[in-house]
Design a protein that fits this description.
The protein is mainly alpha-helical and about 500 residues long. The protein is about 50% helix and about 5% strand. The relative contact order is 0.11.
Amino acid sequence: MMVNKVVFDGQPLTIEDICLIARQQADIELSQQAEFVTRIDKGALFIDTLLREEGFVYGVTTGYGDSCTVSIPLDLVEELPKHLYTFHGCGLGNHFDASTTRTILAVRLTSLARGFSGVRYKLLQQLAELLQQDILPLIPQEGSVGASGDLTPLSYVAAVLAGEREVIYQGDRLLTQAVFAHLNIEPLILKPKEGLAIMNGTAVMTGIACLAYQRAEYLSRLTTRITSLASVALKGNAYHFDEQLFSVKPHPGQNRVAERLRSDLQLTEDAPRHDTRLQDRYSLRCAPHIIGVLEDSLPWLRQFIENELNSANDNPIIDAEGEHVLHGGHFYGGHIAFAMDSLKTAVANLADLMDRQMAQLMDTKFNHGLPANLSGATAEQAIINHGFKAVQIAVSAWTAEALKLTMPASVFSRSTECHNQDKVSMGTIAARDCIRILELTEQVAAAALLAVVQGVELRGNVNALSPALQNTVEQLHQHSPFLKTDRALEQELRFILELIRKQHWNLYD
């Protein structure tokens, strides 16, 4: 039974709310408060009034984009929304997975619930119904430049609300019409402005950004724990994380990472200050500074993402109270584009850090007495066993791919749509790049976790570790035992990767 509930009532939601919906860990409720229903419907009624008075409204009595100079006769206005989602049905590439699709629906519903989009409450009910019944539009990932909103991918949401195209329902790919008939859901005939209101926003990039934020936040903690274990395995100098040392460079996130490392390594203020090795290599000594960049970015990343999440971001904005139609560019996804371009760089640096730590662990020139490639084989078996040699090669490959993808997408704006959309955000591409870098960095983390635990066990005396580190070692060995002789590690890596993506390890609560 779910204990979480997310209510769509026009009030701000959080990244965590959206991610709970993505994982189906929250009940979804659309407010039925009379005041809320009236406020939403008032926008649609204002549009109807303007139509009766033959008012000029972009996308209602005109064509779209560069075609805004084309006046639409009133007898054709009702057909315009269907044409909008129909001609945008040209997406390609892989389809978004179920969790991402849920975020897209939830983010669009959040924005429309602000009450500035000129849609009926009935449309919000239909969107909520898709989430409650887990009817997921089949949305191709490619085709948005992130200005004028995520038009092409969101056209698949609009079409599904109208009973068209395809959905994933109970694990099967089905025609929307068939699912609606089975569940007695009546397809919507979209009213003027409603097709534009659904499609002309930043829901796709923002939904992805919510998921990316949570994954990155967890990776920061996991990379810190891996660094602690790497320090133990490499006989590192724990005083590199000294509290007094870090007090003179007061980045709060960086200091938080150092504090976590001190806790893991049981470094206290009254501990004797001596170490046989004065300075470790940078991938140990500078780990708080590297991970700290991400930690210190999280607050402003949250601000960017949640401000976009809780905004009215289509065009035009309908101020039904003041009876204004406000034409602008709120569909522009620049803040999400910058957030995702920045986040993917910070995350790729985590992959690079763990790759360098692993290289130290493997190499007898740098690992301070550990066997080559962390092999656990002994006696004559040692010469034919290769431990983590191939895993380290794979880690380098995943890291290189992650680093390659850090080129900012936002600098590749393309003028399109007859130069109406002449400067675009590329926010959806930036967000998709960020997810791919997260996937690769999680793969690096899975391999690095196996390797550092192997290194710690090769040192011996696991019982002397802090309770937190002992717990991580014990939990890992429930799924991947000590590597004594060579074995194919793919399935173990895949399993550990799934645990990481489920945030299995409780880190630094």
